[in-house]
Amino acid sequence: MSEPDDLEERVSALEGQVENLNTRVRRSEQDAAAARVLAGGADRDVADLGGEVRELRSEVRELGSGLGQLVVEAIQLRDQNNRLHNATREDLADLRAEVRDFRADVHARFAQVDDNFIGIRGLLDGAAAGQQRIVALLDTLIARGNEPDGPAVD
Question: d(Cα 116, Cα 122) in Å, to the nearest integer?
């Protein structure tokens, strides 16, 4: 066995080691407590993030639903625009046909007016010729009326 002097050194060394171990255990306990605090904070942060993710998912669903409704409305507006466009095209085609018919009718009426003017011109020319004949006869009568015992006019 060891000597008693040696025992005192050994006990002293053991006490130093125990004190060193106690210090290390206290530090480990403090580190563990700090780790528990940090873990609790991390758990709260994760829980908060989970709530935020759930809220974000809900908002995304709402936006998706709203976007779907907008797409449906856009399709309806496009269809309505196409219907209006087609109706406008048909209305324009009808209007063009009416204008063509109206133009043809106006041309036909002007042609009739021209024909009527030609007919009236012919009648006026005939009337003028008749009036000239009357003037000539009157001139003849007047000239004979100034003659003594002139022949009678037929």
Answer: 10
